[in-house]
């Protein structure tokens, strides 16, 4: 379970970096404040659904973390790690939607539906990016994919798939340009009515998704634990930190995209581009 603890540390690092960039209080101070805050519930809210949505978001991130290798080791010995990771994203879809639906608030519901629309837009290019790396390695095991890159990282000769994966990682964590589900134009969206420990758990799940997506990029496109001098697990951690820092930083310079424009771009640009990348990889692998 060391790998899961490392990913938990990455999530805390993401929250710390985000707070530092905003000039606000650190994650531990925010956590302490939310823990002692009284829960606020709207009239006729469906509390069980809300709690399921809130709790299942960090649970999805934790379950996805089980198949993430640091070096050549993962907490869960799975030969279909790519499929498992992708399945946990679907759990996150349901989590955000339930959190928005259950509180019986118009803006929160809009935020939940925005995430469903965003998920439908990014999921296909994301899945094709995952399959491109798996196709090149002839495996769905993240450890095998990382080991198959042999000095030439997939991110170098699959730049389109790598770029699409990074964009979909941001969308998966509804972060930066894809933060519309929590947008200011709907007063905070899916998390609007969440307060106290509920809000803390929900935000922890969001940072957890961001950390897991950053860590999965390492075996998929950055050679896993490949690197000189340092042990493999440490190289994996260093690369994951670099990807995480890049993703967190995007919120500082990129405006939130309108949902309709993102959906249009996903279907007309991202999907054709990543399919073309997959075709190139297929031709190279067959040859």
From TrEMBL:
InterPro entries: NADH_UbQ_OxRdtase_su1/FPO. It is found in: Cell membrane; Membrane. Keywords: Membrane, NAD, Transmembrane, Transmembrane helix. Its main location: membrane. The keyword Cytoplasm does not apply. GO terms for biological process: aerobic respiration. The keyword Lipid metabolism does not apply. Pfam families: NADHdh. The chain crosses the membrane at residues 49-70, 120-140, 152-175, 200-222, 229-250, 262-286. One of its GO terms (molecular function) is NADH dehydrogenase activity. It is a multi-pass membrane protein. It comes from the Bacteria. GO terms for cellular component: plasma membrane. Belongs to the complex I subunit 1 family. This is NADH-quinone oxidoreductase subunit H. It comes from Actinomadura montaniterrae.
